[in-house]
Design a protein that fits this description.
2 copies of one chain form a homodimer.
Chain A lengths: L2 H23 L6 H7 L4 H7 L3 H26 L4 H18 L5 H8 L7 H22 L5 H22 L8 H13 L5 H5 L4
Helix pairs in contact in A: 1-4, 4-7, 5-7, 5-9, 6-7, 7-8, 8-9
């Protein structure tokens, strides 16, 4: 293993430990000493890598967001030139994450926890979530559904909501129907566009 | 004003200040001294009312959940014997809360923030969210939609997801389509029940 690859490997291990540490304690209720202990390093080393605790949080979130971004390439490779199959795979993959991840999405959790106005992590979170939104919207458009922006935002909200809901009420709460809710939404947008105001707004 | 009513009024003011304090700082990153200062009282008084900080958090969440529970009575009174109109009002009211509340739902935020296994607030949060779920499911069933449990959980996830999404990406992110997403979901469940597996894929 080259020096460069060893350094990268050490960096990955450090970020994995940091992610696990924030999952367990949250971003606010922990000091740099405890972070260093959880990451099996020391405060000096952390400060050599990161200028401050805020900087450390931003880099840990960037690491998580890069991992998540790679998922889209895998999705495309799994069903080349079949965007509807990719969309169905997106649902399955999100359902699997929901089942596996005890603590939900690190970036969404950080958005809830970091209340401070102008905290630098907010830019990292927003950039990541908006990039995910653009990818999902493109996928919905490529899949030929009737209202791609609306379906994409519906699926995003279902995903974020399922994660929070699982934290609040466990896996037998509303999140137990995440996959069926996504499938029903996709099915309804595969039908010809209809004016929801006509159907919902007045009594049938 | 009687002594009893004055005491109740003081209690309401205290809980409103506590809610505002937790909105601004979160539940974890604040000590009892700072809570007392934000609530314009002192530590001694807080400890006379509440045995511990955990107890204080539970009572503050119970106060919020009682306010939210009262919403259902208003909803019923606004459209007596018209569950579909009540369901449409639920969507409008949730959209209004989404626009008004800068910090989202206190109870959902507490579910994200309080990581500690067995924290007594988890029971308060779960009881509240499950009670809301039962009310919404009953409303969907009374409104005669095709799959009341699925529509109810879909709407719950959209609501939780919209709140987190607004914190992550602001009001121009996916949450901007919360109302249309709910309306489209309701419209699709007003149509005769269909097998989503036939339309979407075979994994249902």
């Amino acid at each position: 293993m080259t020096v460069c690859r060893r350094a990268r490997r050490r960096e990955i291990v450090l970020f994995q430990r940091l992610a696990s540490c924030f999952d367990n304690t949250g971003f606010c209720g922990i000091g740099v000493d405890a972070i260093a202990e959880a990451a099996e390093t020391n405060k000096m080393t952390l400060y050599r890598h990161f200028g401050s605790k805020d900087d450390l949080i931003c880099e840990a979130l960037r690491f998580t967001s890069e991992k998540a971004a790679a998922f889209w390439d895998l999705l495309e490779a799994s069903h080349p030139n079949d965007p509807m199959a990719q969309l169905q795979s997106w649902v399955k993959a999100r359902a699997q994450c929901l089942a596996d991840d005890k603590y939900g999405c690190d970036l969404a959790n950080a958005a809830v926890e970091l209340k401070e106005q102008g905290h630098p992590a907010h830019v990292v979170i927003e950039n990541f979530k908006l990039a995910q939104r653009r990818r999902l919207e493109k996928l919905c458009r490529d899949a030929g559904v009737s209202e791609p922006e609306l379906l994409s935002d519906t699926l995003s909200m279902l995903m974020e909501g399922a994660q929070v809901s699982k934290l609040a009420t466990g896996s037998e709460g509303p999140s137990m129907r995440f996959m069926r809710a996504c499938e029903a939404a996709i099915a309804s947008f595969r039908q010809p566009a209809r004016n929801t105001a006509d159907t919902v707004g007045s009594e049938a």
